[in-house]
Design goal:
There is one protein chain. With 381 residues, this protein is α/β, with parallel strands linked by helices. The protein has two domains: 122 residues, Aspartate Aminotransferase, domain 1 (Alpha-Beta Complex); 239 residues, 3-Layer(aba) Sandwich (Aspartate Aminotransferase, domain 2). Helix content is 36%, strand content 14%. The chain has ten helices and twelve strands. Helix 4 links the parallel strand 2 and strand 3. The N terminus is likely disordered.
Length: 381
């Protein structure tokens, strides 16, 4: 572990978390999963993704997701390359027919809305927006054919409940990138529940996964076979057909699939989604409780029921520089606690995903207290 440098502060070893990775994506990857990749990766890495070994790996991921979310038999797991950002473009082509409604309350929910605004074949969307730190309230509208919600806004640490709106011809598209695998969900309330693996699933980026309802499957098939121009890379129906064969259209990152399969199976062995969600809530209680008990920090999200259990944001008093605190932490091996770059607040943002040990979250708070005490005392020579 690297210590010292910069401020010159060296945190006592006994205060530090055992694992100092608290990033909100890419997130902590357990050492045991990396060890298994090193041991078993030789038969997978550098082999065709259309042959049995890699297709079996894709099957492991699909089966793990079916078990984790207790999927109805008619729902399908679909995957492809490009990450959740890519899936926004896919949705503009293959899931939104004419007009959508978007709940916007941070950077990532706003990016999806912007993608729809720029799509020349779609009507201008309805946008329900709140300032960062608050949760919007989507409403039933007869004008839209898709509601676009975000279960957890990664940039701000605000979460929202997911409940179906409107009728069966109106799809529920839920961005669950930082929520899936760490927050409970009733899949019946969604039509496209999509995410990336580099957060709760303790893997790497570059892949999107979506759990699609029969209505979403039907619409994607219809739109992708219509006269609407759909680039081959963004053709959702082609991804569906390939996923049914346990493969992706283009060559995937095999290591990403392997690490995700390991995390899925570990989570299932511990008790599944209810266990993972409880573990995240335990970490969140420790972090928010600490912030509320200090004289220099406070949870950024004012309403406790809106606070994320997987991404915690904590504001600092103006007398304490969060940037300086995160810098000292990084110098001592506690990394990626910085606030979201575009939010521009004096705060820390902490990933509380299932792979993060709640005990380490408690140690992190003790470590931060030590750093702040030293900075206040002028120990940052």
């Amino acid at each position: 572990m690297t210590t010292g440098g910069g401020s010159g502060l060296v945190i006592p070893q006994h205060l530090l978390p055992d694992d100092g990775r608290f990033g909100c994506g890419p997130s902590k990857v357990p050492a045991v999963a990396l060890s298994r990749l090193s041991q078993d990766g030789g038969r997978l890495m550098g082999t065709s993704h259309r042959q049995a070994p890699v297709r079996t790996l894709v099957g492991r991921v699909k089966d793990g997701l079916r078990q984790l979310f207790q999927l109805p038999p008619e729902y399908e797991v679909v995957l492809g390359n490009g990450g959740a950002t890519c899936f926004w473009d896919i949705a503009t082509l293959a899931l939104i027919e004419h007009k959508s409604q978007h709940a916007v309350f941070g950077e990532f929910s706003s990016k999806f809305a912007q993608a729809v605004c720029e799509a020349p074949h779609l009507d201008a969307p309805e946008i329900v927006e709140t300032e960062p730190g608050k949760r919007p309230l989507p409403y039933i509208s007869s004008e839209v054919d898709a509601y676009c919600l975000t279960q957890n806004e990664t940039s701000t640490g605000v979460s929202m409940p997911i409940r179906r709106l409107g009728g069966e011809r109106q799809l529920m598209l839920v961005d669950a990138t930082s929520a899936a695998g760490g927050m409970e969900i009733d899949i019946d309330q969604t039509d496209a529940y999509y995410f990336s693996p580099q957060k709760c699933f303790a893997s790497d980026g570059g892949l999107w996964l979506a759990i699609l309802s029969p209505n979403a499957l039907d619409r994607s098939r219809r739109l992708c076979s219509s006269d609407r121009w759909v680039p081959a890379f963004l053709n959702l129906w082609t991804a569906v057909e390939n996923s049914r064969l346990d493969q992706t259209v283009n060559t995937p990152a095999v290591a990403t699939l392997f690490l995700m399969a390991e995390q899925l199976e570990w989570t299932l062995s511990q008790g599944g989604l209810s266990w993972a969600a409880a573990r995240c809530r335990e970490s969140a209680r420790a972090l928010y409780g600490w912030a509320e008990g200090t004289d220099y920090a406070t949870p950024f999200v004012a309403e406790s029921e809106d606070r994320s259990p997987v991404v915690a944001t904590v504001d600092f008093d103006e007398s304490i520089s969060a940037i300086e605190v995160s810098s000292v932490l990084r110098q001592n091996g506690v990394v990626d606690t910085d606030s979201y770059r575009k939010l521009g607040r004096n705060q820390l943002r902490i990933g509380l995903f299932p792979a993060v040990d709640p005990v380490d979250v408690g140690r992190l708070t003790t470590t931060i207290d030590w750093v702040v005490q030293e900075l206040r005392a002028g120990g940052h020579s």
